[in-house]
Specification:
Helices cover 28% and strands 38% of the residues. It is of the alpha+beta class. It has two domains: 30 residues; 158 residues, Protein Transport Mog1p, Chain A. It has a seven-stranded antiparallel β-sheet with strand order 3-4-5-9-8-7-6. A two-stranded antiparallel ribbon has the order 1-2. A hairpin with a 5-residue loop joins strand 7 and strand 8. The protein is globular. The termini are far apart.
Length: 193
Amino acid sequence: MSAAQRVFGALVAFASLVGLALGSVGCGGSDTPPPGFVRFADHGLLLDYPAAWRKEDVRMEAGGEAAGTKLNIVRPSHAPGINLCVTLFRQKREYPDIAKYGKDAARTRPFALPEGRAVSDGPLSVPGASDGGWTVTTDFFTEDSNRRRLPARAVDVLALRGDEQFRLTIAGPRDELEHSPEIAAIRKSLRVG
């Protein structure tokens, strides 16, 4: 092997190591949240969110969707009277497998939202989800405080682990959900164990 080939091989190996290191930082592999974010942690359930967002109290009820709610955060969007909302649920497992959980959410979600329309659903890797992850994207319409009709989107990230099920819901104006680096960072930070 020539000296040039050895140098090239060493550079490829170094680039691979750098790529792995940078990839783990971008995917929530860090022990600390990114700058400007705070970490919600509860018995292995982790989610990083912007410190400037407002944490809202959520009433815990026995049964129903609100049972097991752990976190609800919001920030005003660019549209008057409309918030970007992030809600994280941890509940007792109700589904035998992730495909059933995901397909049920994909089937029912459009009916829960004004003019809801299924966009996509499918498997997703969620760190700690030993029994799998799924994502469901639903478009809908809402009105701002000026009664203007706005396109909106809800993205649900579902996960199963042991006897628990998890649901991260991110909703708000469609353009903000599609282009917000904050939303991307929140979504990537989810860990369920």
